[in-house]
Amino acid sequence: MSRAQDREELRGLSLLELQSALRDARQELFQNRLRYATHHLDNPEPLRKGRKRIARIMTYLHQREIGEQKGVA
């Protein structure tokens, strides 16, 4: 999946879906770290991609949070 497709997908998710996606991404990163540490994952690229996906999801969550605060105030 390209970065643009990933961003579009994340932009369309609800708050609960974003939180679920964050939980899944963190779990996947943990599993990849474990595989890398035990030498069952030769290429560290999934680790970088996982961290970036988590950062993107957290960015969208933060944007929603700011949007809700501005909407209430």
The overall average pLDDT, rounded, is 91
Gross geometry: elongated
CATH class: Mainly Alpha
**Helix coverage percent of residues?**
over 70%
Give the count of helical stretches. Answer: 3
Round the Cα radius of gyration to an integer and report it: 15 Å
Assess the beta-strand content as a share of residues: under 5%
Can you tell me the CATH architecture? Orthogonal Bundle
> CATH topology, what is it called?
Helix Hairpins
Structural class: mainly alpha
Q: What is the count of structural domains? A: 1
What is the straight-line distance between the termini?
38 Å
Low-confidence stretches: none
User: What is the number of strand segments?
Assistant: 0
Query: Main sheet?
Result: none
Along the chain, the helix and strand elements come as: HHH
